[in-house]
Structure formats: structure tokens, C-alpha cells
Amino acid sequence: MDKVPTTARLEARLPVEVHALLKRAAELQGRTLTDFVVTAARDAACRVIEEADIIRLSVEDQRQLAEAILNPPEPAPALRRAFARRHELFGPA
């Protein structure tokens, strides 16, 4: 049975001063250089992905959303029928 690898290799060339900086930071935290770099890269990647997933609304969009929440429109006929059918099938909510 083939075993699926649990790690992958990443190689990077970086300026000597950046390497020294990373190595010093890792030593200050009592970690290996690899552990420090992997953790820092993972944290940065998570932040980038999280920021990309955030929905940003313009001021006008925010106003419209708040208005819809505070003063929702009347349900459409199809929604009324769906609620009535649900009530028939499952009883009151």
C-alpha cells in the first residue's frame, strides 16, 4: 500500500541578511529556523486568505443592508406558499 506523504519540500534563495534575521528571530523564540519560517508563512497565508474572504460593502451598500434588516419587505407570494406548505407537512415552526 502506497503511503501518502505528510510533508512537502520548499526551497528558497534569500539574501544573507534576511537569512540572518530569520535565524535570529527563531533563536529568540527557541525554535528551529524551519519551524519559525513555516509558522510565519502559515500565519501570513491564513491572514491573506481571511482578508480575501471578508465581504466589503460600500457605505451605500451598508445602509441598504441595514434598512433591509430593520424594515424587511413583505414576503413574496412564493415564499408565503412555501411557508404554508411547510406548515402542512411539519406543523407550526
Q: Mind sketching the topology for me?
A:
Elements: H1 16-28, H2 33-53, H3 59-70, H4 77-90
Helix pairs in contact: 1-2
Helicity, as a percent range: 55-70%
Structural class: mainly alpha
The number of helices is 4
- Which percent range describes the beta-strand content? under 5%
Radius of gyration: 27 Å
Based on Cα principal axes, name the global outline.
Answer: elongated
The largest sheet is: none
Defining traits:
93 residues, mainly alpha
How does this structure look, described?
The chain is about 65% helix and about 0% strand. It has helices at about 15-30, 35-55, 60-70, 75-90. Helix 1 (about 15-30) packs across helix 2. The radius of gyration is 27 Å and the shape is elongated. The mean pLDDT is about 95.
Question: Brief overview, please?
Answer:
The chain is mainly alpha-helical and 93 residues long. It has 4 helices and no strands.
